[in-house]
Amino acid sequence: MVPPRPVVHAAVFALAALQALASDTFIAAVYEHAVILPRAAHKTVSPEDALALMNRNMDILEGAIREAAQQGARIIVTPEDGLYGWVFTREAIYPYLEDIPDPEVNWIPCTDPTRFAPAPVLERLSCMARNNSIYVVANIGDKKSCNSSDPSCPSDGRYQYNTNVVFDSEGKLVARYHKYNLFRQETQFNYPKEPEAVTFETPFGKFGIFTCFDILFWEPAVVLVSELQVDTVLFPTAWMNVLPFLTAVEFHSAWAMGMRVNLLSANTHNIRMSMTGSGLFTPGGAAAYYYNSETEEGRLLVAELSARPRLSPTYPPAVNWSSYATSVKNFTEDNTFLGAVRRDIFTFSELKHEDGNYTVCQKDLCCHLTYRMSNKNNDEIYVLGAFDGLHGSVIKYHWQVCTLLKCRSTDLSTCGQPVETAQTKFDMFSLSGTFGTNYVFPEVLYSGVQLAPGEFEVMGHSGTV
C-alpha cells in the first residue's frame, strides 16, 4: 500500500576467517561523477594526453574519496567510464588502457609501482585507497596481448576489456572484474570468454561486483547473489535513464529489494546523455539516493548499511510472488488496448473510476490491481498494463511487467511515453501478477522521479505491492 501522494507509475518487474573482526554495520559511499570527457573520443591521442585527462578526473575522485573517508566510509564506489568517458573507437581507447594483473599476485601498486608494466592509474588509485584507509572501487580499461596461437585473438593482437578494480584499505588490488554483458555501443571492448563471478571477503561482509548492463542478466548478477551469497554488490554504471521503468534509482532500488541484498550503485552524471541516479540501496529500500536532471554537478552519498543483511532481524522473508495473483478472482476488462513502451507492446486498461478492481492479461501473465484515488485529476489518465515477452534491441531477454502508470496526456496513444510529474493522489493500491519466476523487482515512483522508500510494503506472501 502507498500513502496518498502523486504517483507517476508503479511496476513489478520479473527477469528471467574474518568473523572475529566482523561488524554488524558499516558506512559505505558512492560518488556520482560528472566525467571530464575527451574533446573527440573517436580520435586517438598520445598516452601522455590520455593520462592527463584521467588525472583530471582522478583529481575529482580523490577529493570525493577523501571526504568519504572523513565521514567514516569503509568503501567507496565510483562510476563506470569515470576516468575517461565513453563512445570510443577500439583504436581511440587504447592509450587509456593498462595491463591489470590477476589479484592473486598480491600487489600493492602504491608501494611497488615497478613490479609490472607501468600502470600510473592503478598506482594512483592504490595510493588513494592506502592514504585514506578505504576500499576504492573504480572502472578502467584492461589490455591483454594475444597472438595467432589463440584462435579468438583480435586482428590487432590484443583483448580490451571494460574492467572494474577494487583496492583494499592498504592499497592492495583485491578484485578485478571484466564486464561480460556489453552494451550495444561498447564496440571498443571485447567480451570475456566466460562470465566471471568475482567476490572478496572483508571484515564488513562478502562483496560481489559487476557493471551496468550486467544487472539485467543471470550471469553474473543472479549467480553472485543466489549461488555465491554475497552480502553487498558493487555496481559502477553509466546508466541512461529511460522512463517509465528503467530510470537508474528506480530499477536499482527495485533490484536490491527483489534480490534482498545491498547494492552500491555509482552512476556517471551527464545531463545530455540522461545519465544520473546513484544510491546505496538495501533489501528494505534506499538508504540514500540522488537523481538530478537539472544541473551538471556530481554528488557524494554516504550511508550506514547492514554488513550481513541475511542475518539482520529485519531481513525481509522470501516472497512467493505468484501465490496471491493465482488465487484471486479475475476482474477481466473488455476495453483493453495495445500501447507501446518504447519497443515493448503492452496490453493496457484505463482506470475509469476513482476506485476499483482490474485485471489485464498478456500471454501467461495476468496483472491484478485494487486501488482507491483521493482526488482524481480530470486531466490525467492512468492505466493498468501487462507485458510478457522479449525486451531489448540487439541483446534480447525475457521479462514480465505489471504496471500502474500515468499516460502522457488524455490521449490513450500516449500511454507508455515518459512522464515525470503527476497530480492525482492514490489512497492505496495493490498490484500483483502471475509471474513465472521468483526474481521479481518491485518499486513505486512518485512525481518528480522520487522513490517511495519505506512507504509501501509487500503484503506478506501475497506477491502484491
From TrEMBL:
Xref: InterPro entries: Biotinidase-like_euk, Biotinidase/VNN, C-N_Hydrolase, C-N_Hydrolase_sf, Vanin_C
In this protein, which residues make up the domain named CN hydrolase? 40-307
Q: At the top level of its lineage, which domain of life is listed?
A: Eukaryota
Q: List UniProt keywords, sorted A-Z.
A: Glycoprotein, Hydrolase, Signal
BP GO terms, sorted: pantothenate metabolic process
Which GO MF terms does the UniProt record name?
A: pantetheine hydrolase activity
Q: Entry's Gene3D superfamilies?
A: Carbon-nitrogen hydrolase
| Active site per UniProt | 80, 179, 212
Q: Pfam families from the xrefs? A: CN_hydrolase, Vanin_C
Plastid recorded as keyword = no
Q: Does the keyword Hydrolase apply?
A: yes
Which sequence ranges are marked TM in the entry?
none
Residues making up the signal peptide according to the UniProt record: 1-22
Similarity annotation? Belongs to the carbon-nitrogen hydrolase superfamily. BTD/VNN family.
Official protein name in the record = CN hydrolase domain-containing protein
Q: Which organism is it from?
A: Anser brachyrhynchus
